[in-house]
Amino acid sequence: MISLNELLSTSTRIVAFTGAGMSTESGIPDFRSIHGVWSKYSPVLFKDFIFNEESRQQHWRYKETTWHEFHKAQPNLGHKKLRVWHEKGLLKAVITQNIDGLHQASGLPDSAVIELHGSNAYIHCVESISGDCQYRVPSPAFYEKLKFNANWPLCPSCGGYLKPATVMFGQSMPGAAMAHAHFLAQNCDLFVVLGSSLEVSPANELPFAAKKYGAKLAVINREPTLADEIADCVVRGNIGEVLGPL
Ligand code: NAD
Ligand code: ZN
What we know:
Shape: elongated
Bound molecules: nicotinamide-adenine-dinucleotide, zinc ion
Number of strands: 9
Number of helices: 9
Oligomer: single chain
Order of helices and strands: HEHHHEHEEEHEHEHEEH
């Protein structure tokens, strides 16, 4: 095992890969921890959202309730540390599974944040997935107008279903973001996993790809992850406490 300090001081092309654990210190629960989201809500599959009214309602209820947590969250020490590394030219980009926009809120430019699972910051039309409709609105304006009732509004442009612009279980990954993430994983010298159980596929292939292409791999997570065995450095702890003193 190499220390995190040593890895950081000998790397100049760092790529961070973040999961829900990155934002628990900002007050957003992760999915799989004991008080995580899955302890209260069960996930809705994309095909059920499209074909089943009850599933659609269930997904919207979950999204509307959790939106308020997302909306008031602020970047934490970990997000700010990554921004500092980027300003120094060491961190090339953050590949994130998160949908909370907190990396951008910490000051990282959009071009340095690759969102693999979309964003909660927008509501879009399902027809935008095929490219047939471009309708998209910022979430704050949407939720402000919305009074919960049995019928969520349809797309004003084409009449399709609206949904938060996040990638649901069973939905295809955004091709351009995945290609960009693989390019970064293959061209970095240090790949740092922060706050991810690495149980969500195919995003969890990235640390393995980085390692295969010659990068060192560091994992900072409270609990064991699927990449610990191949990592050069594993730190168990809270991200803010680990990154803060570095
Ligand atoms: P996960 O819930 O599967 O894993 C999170 C991991 O982070 C856990 O292993 C946990 O032990 C660890 N962790 C939690 N807080 C931590 C902290 N402060 N410091 C260090 N480790 C910490 O999450 P995942 O791997 O990101 O996969 C779940 C999916 O959930 C993702 O696809 C993501 O889109 C979605 N999600 C996003 C958010 C968000 O945007 N903030 C929140 C919940 C879920
Ligand atoms: Zn539409």
